[in-house]
Amino acid sequence: MPHAMNLAAIDLGSNSFRLEIGSFEHLQIQRVEYIKETVRQGNGLDDERNLTPEAMERGWACLARFGERLRGFAPECVRAVATQTLREARNREAFVQRANELLGFPIDVISGEEEARLIYRGVVSQLPMTDERRLVMDIGGRSTEFVLGHGVQAEALASYRIGSVAWSMRYFPQGVLTAEAFANAELAARAVLDEALDTFRPGSWDRAYASAGTANAVGEVLIANGRSQGVIDRDGLDWLQQQLLRAQHVDRIRLDGMREDRRPMLAGGISIMRAAFDLLGIDQMQIAQGALRQGVLHDLADADLPTGDLRTASIHALAHRFAVDTAHARHVADTALHLARELTGTAQPQQHLLEWAALVHETGQRINRSNYHRHSAYILQQCGAKGFSEAELQQMSLLALGHRGKLKKVEDFIAQAPGAMELLALRLAVIFCHARQAPMLQGLQLSRRGTDFTLRLPTGWSQQFPQSAHLLAEEVDAWSKTSWKLQLVLD
Q1: For the ranges 21-30, 162-171, 272-281, which has the lowest average pLDDT?
Q2: How many CB atoms lie within 10 A of CB 259?
Q3: Burial 262-275 (b: 16+ CB within 10 A, else e)
């Protein structure tokens, strides 16, 4: 797939139809446009499981609008997928035939297992690259998917015919909210999900994630009311259920963070989520950023996500975005790695962060050259680069902040030896590469004993590189104001 190619994913869900357009570049997909329309096709199945004429018309009208936006897209750059409502609908062929014409691209009614696979791929595309075992749960309008995976690899997939729209219609008819209705809905959900225990046994994951649909509805309310910081836990679910019971009817729900289109399906979604928590022994779930449509986009891009590659791609994308001089950045990175290995005697895993920080240490120059290191640090801390944890971005941010100027601003970072060694390697690399050329490193030796660093320079080096020697003298002075010392030795 060529770089800078626009891709489009269409998700025909039971409650909403969504269109996401993303630009694929440097193994990453950046959002270009996102359109969501509440179509409520899941409400449009009659007693014989046929889509009503009204439900079909709502869907066709939405897809016609999506089709206008997608005119000119190549067929290989677009994928439309339909989920549980159209899996169930007996007259789906009649709907899909007309829908294909209006959209301009074929619609694929995917299986529950394929939906689960795409959900997992979408979720992990937005997560740091780790080796953790992950449980992903997605409660949609008429189906619920569970995925157990290891890192980026999905290992167990399951889809169940239970969802927030279907459960709200069945157990909370006319929108009436009672304790008895919640108890019945939760009991029925446990009965449907009971077989999940055969595969998704408690203790078989390190962290659980809740994706899209009900997770977003619940999460946004909990966050808006100060009940959560990006997680859904049992206390939060209990509190939210009590708020709904006090309202007594969906039309009287008044909660910060509650969107109008989500009120009718919230009770059913909460009942299913509470049942899943109890059944699988879940204490809390992280609210995932990725979802089905991101999985579709990554499938279109055919962008595999092996460990490390996503982070490297994120750094390259960041450097490209801020017009970094990549040749100079590469010289600085190579020099910093060389010096770090002199200090440690080996290549350590954290030196990947040193390399990546060096490659983007000048991103802030696009904003302001005089204080660019501060802008670089801010960019790294706030960019949300894919594949990195917050802690990793914070460490690279501190390296960028401290690579020039006084060291007091990073005194906590250099209080420990690993931080001090990495920052010294980067600062010296910037000095040696100040002429924006690959430096001469032959004969240079950097060592450490306790809190003392020694940089040994070959005979005649200071006469051959007088500006570098001047900058090194200033560097000795900078470190003298810390608990560390840097000494220059001329052979």
Answers
A1: 21-30
A2: 12
A3: bbbbbbbbbbbbbb
Structure tokens at 30: 């950046």
Q: Are strands 452-457 and 28-38 parallel, antiparallel or unpaired?
A: unpaired
Q: Whole-angstrom Cα distance, residue 201 to residue 206? A: 12
Instruction: Look at strands 144-150 and 133-139 and give their pairing.
Output: antiparallel
**Distance of alpha carbon 13 from the chain centroid:** 22
- Residue 5's pLDDT band, with cuts at 50, 70 and 90, is confident
Poorest-pLDDT segment among 69-73, 176-180, 345-349, 460-464: 345-349
Q: Which domain holds residue 92?
A: 5-111
Mean pLDDT, the chain, rounded, equals: 91
Do 322 and 442 fall within a single domain? yes
One domain for residues 50 and 169? no
Task: Give CA separation, 123 vs 10, 292, 294, in Å.
Answer: 17, 8, 8
CA 285 to chain centre: 15
The three-class DSSP label of residue 385 is coil
Mean pLDDT of 263-272: 95
What's 327's domain CATH number? 1.10.3210.10
**In total, how many domains does the chain have?**
3
CA-atom Rg of the chain in angstroms: 28
Q: Which amino acid is at 424?
A: L
Mean pLDDT along residues 12-16: 92
**Angle between helix 112-124 and 292-301 (nearest 10):** 80
Q: Say what the pLDDT of residue 350 is.
A: 58
Amino acid, res. 473: A
What are the CA-CA distances from residue 342 to residues 145, 247, 262, 345 (Å)?
A: 50, 67, 58, 5
Q: Which residue has the higher pLDDT, 59 or 229?
A: 59
- Residues 253-259: contacts with CB under 8 Å, at least 24 apart: 255/221, 255/224, 255/225, 256/221, 256/224, 256/225, 257/220, 257/221, 257/222, 257/223, 257/224, 257/225, 258/217, 258/220, 258/221, 258/224, 259/217, 259/220
- Give the pair of three-digit tokens for residue 444: 């240079």
* 242, 258, 288 - which closes a domain: 288
Taking CA 75 as the corner, what is the angle to CA 74 and CA 79, rounded to the nearest 5 degrees? Answer: 120
Q: Which long-range contacts (CB under 8 A, 24 or more apart) does 344-352 make?
A: 344/421, 350/395, 350/418, 350/422, 351/422, 352/308, 352/311
